Amino acid sequence: MSVRRLAKEQPASFAFSKATKAKCDWWIAKYPADRRQSAVIPILWLVQKQEGWCPEPALRAIGELLGMPYIRVLEVATFYTMFMLEPVGSAALIQVCGTTPCMLRGAGELMDVCKKKIGPKDTLSADGRFTWQEVECLGACANAPMAQINDYYFEDLTAESMGQIIDDFAAGKKPKPGSRIGRASSEPEGGALTLTDPKLYDGSAARPIRKLPNSDPVPA
Fold this sequence. Notes:
It is built from 7 helices and 7 strands; from the N terminus they run ααααβααβββαβββ. By secondary structure, it is α/β, with parallel strands linked by helices. The protein is flat.
């Protein structure tokens, strides 16, 4: 695991927004009073949604809110890679999967597009609107190559579609997540190849049910 450190430049302070604080209280209420520290992960996520990343003053505020030492909040934030420890793009955080299935299907070309349009990986773009990273398996191998952009999966990507997605975010648009070739979930490319006869799943071929006296229904 790579070493994860806090950004060198940090804001002077942090404050929970009214909406964020309300959601924090909702999460804390899910746990017994002496187990409120269990809410640290969802509250870190709420802070990241508010700020775009997890600055050091926010970690201290979370520790105070939950009654836990700052170092323990820091341990959680640095362990889980879903928590950003440096500012990321305000328009899009692009996480390109670089694990074997995606790499074999063209993830390298997606990264080349990101380098060309955004700049070096793990670095905030010059305009502050984009960050891209190479990450490990995101669990959508059947739809490789793919990337998680902000909160959503974009699958069956090509260099051309990745470039268009970046251009759309740059233009203030919200590209639709999902497969770029129109398939649903991880169904086979081109459509289903098995269970194509509706009788196999619509119940029309099922045996009728008869009910015995004083018993549950059984197949006829």
